UniProtKB/TrEMBL annotation:
Domain HTH marR-type: 2-47
GO MF term (any one): DNA-binding transcription factor activity
Family listed: Belongs to the ROK (NagC/XylR) family.
Pfam families per UniProt: MarR (PF01047), ROK (PF00480)
Database matches in SUPFAM superfamilies: Actin-like ATPase domain, Winged helix' DNA-binding domain
Organism of derivation: Cetobacterium ceti
InterPro entries, sorted: ATPase_NBD, HTH_MarR-typ, ROK, WH-like_DNA-bd_sf, WH_DNA-bd_sf
Name under which the protein is recorded: N-acetylglucosamine repressor
Transmembrane annotation, as ranges: none
Length: 397
């Protein structure tokens, strides 16, 4: 496929439906030339015509869409710290099936996802690709989980294991980069080529998009913002072994640990009884404390927000993104998100223009990450695209 053909297919994929005229205008191609290319794709059954699809107004045009029935669907496996999310979806982003499971046995987690994947593939059929999303360090080219702290995985060849088991194309990616792909294809950054997504959860990570593509960096470990040292005097040790990292100072886990320590020192907090009854606190408890204006909860959360603001200042100065997308529980609280904006404004230069956006995909993000990876890779990853066409008996010149 040449570049024009790939661009056409990407536009149809990302917009779900497009007319021939819209495609010609978008790519500055003559209508006659566009019709020739579209005819070729229709003959190869890569796309189909849909007269019932929504139009952009005026005379109803015949719209073009990806032939999902021919291409099949993507099985997405997203491994969060305490849950595993399974979903299937089309190459245009429609979720067909979703289910989550708690992680009860971390030592047997690989066998568990293999067994569940086999059940889903047998039950649903028409699955033509598998996407595996895992936290930690990932070599996406080799499909290897280099290190996943939550599961204590070291150099696990996920792509090889799943390819040999199911004989399907397999993609493996880091969870935050997959979140960035979600925003690029399905979310707030469809028309943005340069942006950074920051995810704050048990850890902190980021995804960098430059010129419309994910930046992986040398060794595929770009975006590890959580391990930038923010406080060299800190005694808080990070999972990476360093002290004072952003993750150790401002992640959900860090906030919970700070507040728990203060309560155990007999400092008053509205959450004291909650800790006594449950034996632990979670981020929802912290946000409840902030909402109820509990002093210690608010102090721990705002200190974290201030630290995150300073890290965003570094990103703005270094990368100069058009948008920064925020993913995480903390940013769902209006007081904390407003505090973040104010703290950033205190430290950035007047000339540094950016947009700060809270992700609208947050609640269902783990169901979409693997689907977005499959969508992003189709027509971008040559090996993956060829394999998808091959298993579906599709020939493309």
């Amino acid at each position: 496929m040449n570049q024009n053909q790939l661009q056409i297919l990407k536009l149809i994929r990302d917009n779900k439906y497009m007319s021939r005229m819209d495609l010609a205008k978008a790519l500055n191609v003559t209508p006659a030339a566009m019709c020739r290319i579209i005819k070729h794709f229709l003959e190869k059954e890569i796309i189909i015509e849909d007269s019932c699809a929504p139009s952009t107004g005026g005379r109803k045009a015949t719209m073009l869409t990806i032939n999902n029935q021919k291409l099949g669907s993507i099985l997405s496996i997203s491994l969060a710290p305490n849950k595993i999310f399974f979903s299937t979806g089309t190459f245009t982003g429609d979720i067909l099936y979703k289910k989550q499971f708690p992680i009860n046995n971390r030592e047997n987690i690989l066998n568990f996802i293999l067994e569940k994947s086999e059940e889903i593939i047998k039950e649903l059929e028409n699955i033509s690709a598998i996407s595996i999303i895992v936290n930690g360090l990932v070599n996406e080219k080799k499909g290897v989980s280099i290190f996943s702290p939550h599961y204590q995985w070291h150099d696990v060849p996920l792509k090889t294991i799943f390819t040999e088991k199911f004989n399907l194309p397999v993609l493996v990616e880091n969870e935050v980069r997959a979140m960035g792909m979600c925003e690029k294809i399905l979310g707030e950054c469809k028309d943005v080529n340069n942006f950074v997504l920051i995810n704050v959860s048990e850890g902190i990570g980021s995804c960098i998009f430059t010129n419309g593509k994910v930046y992986h960096g040398h060794g595929s470990i770009a975006g590890e913002i959580g391990h930038i040292i923010m406080d060299r005097t800190s005694i808080r040790k990070c999972s990476c072994g360093k002290r004072g990292c952003l993750e150790a100072e401002a992640s959900n886990s860090a906030i919970i640990n700070k507040l728990t320590s203060q309560i155990k020192l007999n400092n008053y907090s509205l959450l004291k009884d909650t800790l006594k009854i449950k034996g632990f606190l979670d981020i929802e408890d912290i946000l409840y404390g902030v909402k109820e204006r509990d002093f210690l909860s608010t102090k721990a959360a705002t200190e974290a927000i201030t630290t995150i603001a300073h890290s965003i200042d570094m990103i703005i100065s270094l990368i100069n993104p058009e948008k920064i997308v925020l993913m995480g529980d903390l940013f769902q609280d209006k007081f904390l998100s407003n505090t973040l904006t104010l703290e950033i404004e205190k430290v950035i230069l007047d000339e540094q223009k950016y947009k700060l956006i809270i992700s609208k995909l947050f609640k269902n993000i783990y169901y979409y990450t693997g689907i977005a990876l499959g969508m992003y890779s189709l027509f971008s990853n040559k090996e993956f695209t060829q394999n998808i066409f091959f298993i579906n008996n599709m020939e493309v010149n």
